[in-house]
Amino acid sequence: MKILRTPDSRFKNIKDFPYDPNYTVIKTHDGSDLRIHHIDEGPNDGPTLLVMHGQPVWSYLYSRMIPYLTDAGIRVIAPDLPGYGKSDKPASREDYSYQRQVDWMTDWIKANDFNNLTFFKIKAFRNSDIKLNPISMQREIRKMDGKNISGSDSSHHPALSFMYWQKLCWDTEDLPIGFMMTNMMERNSRIKILIYFIFLRLGLRKLFPFKSNLDKAYEAPFPDPSYKMGPRAMPSHVPMIPDQSLEAQKKARELRYDFFTFLSLKYNYTHIMTAHHLDDNIETILINIYRGKKLNPLTGIKQINNTIVRPLLSFTKDDIVNYAKKNKLTEFDKSYDFEKNFILFLVQYVFTNDSS
Q: Could you report the per-residue pLDDT of 68-122, keeping only the tens digit for each?
């Protein structure tokens, strides 16, 4: 396996990223050495928060959140997936798969002997997150999801929108990651976006004179297009139909409901409500049909299952979004300054959960 390593000099001038690098070397399936980077900040004896990035970002995503968490006494572990950030970058498309990312990160956790973790991920690019399997790792990992900060377009079905994303990533050899991130995470004027886009189309992106610090940070891991195989290849490997990673997802889902049951018993709750909607139910039915489920595959998700209640199951995502807009309710999918929204919640969660 050919593996690329981004020179340290690429990260020297990144603003607001003062964290010392930590590296762990694991073995790939063919015996190659693969170096994985992570940030480790905060007290060693504090509760440990494992924060994971998605596609196509890296641990810089959490740079502004980390000081708040460590000041509250929380130890923060923020790795870069192989192919991203300061971690090594396999150079071939065939080197990447969803399951290999799971295996690589599982080996990384084992090598560092991390235990009693709270697992947190931002749903900025929700189809690209990695489902770590706490059962196979024999580690206690409690899972948390952050809000989707990528925005949403309800005019297309989510699967179709994601297919466009997959095609864009693979077809674009020099994926303009900095350009995409600055327009998704920062408030830019239309004029600036238009001028930047013109530079981009003319092949003059590197000459654009008004790049933000965030733009530069997200381009730093990639000295040239050959380093971008991870962000280009991974979206195409996200399971659109069931594959071997579904077993890990099933166990993670069981762990999540076990945690809900624990909370119910602890606080004497009678019911648990989840936000599953009709789109989720359709996806479940299709998966059941694909698997060849012998019992009625059209059953899907139950609206009431013992103490679990799903009041939104009759409504599509579009129904929910339109209702929120009509009644002027906050649409969480379009939160930009996510750090301020999560700090207090994270601190309270990590410190008040007795299972840690």
A: 999 999 999 999 999 999 999 999 988 998 888 889 999 999 999 988 888 876 6
174, 56 Cβ separation under 8 angstroms = no
Burial of 229 (0-12, 13-18, 19+ CB in 10 A): buried
d(CA 80, CA 179): 20
H/E stretch holding 22 reads: strand 22-27
Residue 345 to residue 207: CA distance in whole angstroms: 41
Residues 6 or more apart in contact with residue 163 via CB below 8 angstroms: none
Contact between 26 and 103 (Cβ < 8 Å): no
At 76, which CATH number?
A: 3.40.50.1820
Residue-wise pLDDT tens digits, 280-308: 777 677 656 555 555 555 567 888 888 88
Tell me, rounded to whole angstroms, the distance of Cα 326 from its chain centroid: 30
Same-domain check for residues 199 and 284: no
Tokens of 285: 């039915």
Same domain, 163 and 294: no
Q: Are residues 10 and 147 in the same domain?
A: yes
Q: What does each C-alpha distance from 339 to 57, 172, 212, 223, 238 come to in angstroms?
A: 16, 30, 18, 28, 27
Is residue 28 located within the same domain as residue 130? yes
Q: Which two tokens stand for residue 256?
A: 């999540």
This model's pTM is above 0.85: no
Question: What region, left, alpha or beta, does residue 193 occupy, with left being phi > 0 and alpha being psi -120 to 50 degrees?
Answer: alpha
Task: List the structure tokens of 29.
Answer: 């399936």
Q: Do 312 and 181 fall within a single domain?
A: no
- Residues 146, 113, single domain; the answer is yes
How long is the chain?
356
The torsion region of residue 141 among left (phi > 0), alpha (psi -120 to 50) and beta comes to: beta
- Rounded distance between C-alpha atoms, residue 182 and residue 218, angstroms: 9
- The pair of three-digit structure tokens given for residue 267, joined into one six-digit string: 């606080």
As a whole number of angstroms, the distance between CA 83 and CA 141 comes to 24
- Collect all residues with Cβ–Cβ distance below 8 Å to 80 and sequence separation of at least 6: 36, 37, 38, 53, 58, 59, 86, 87, 221
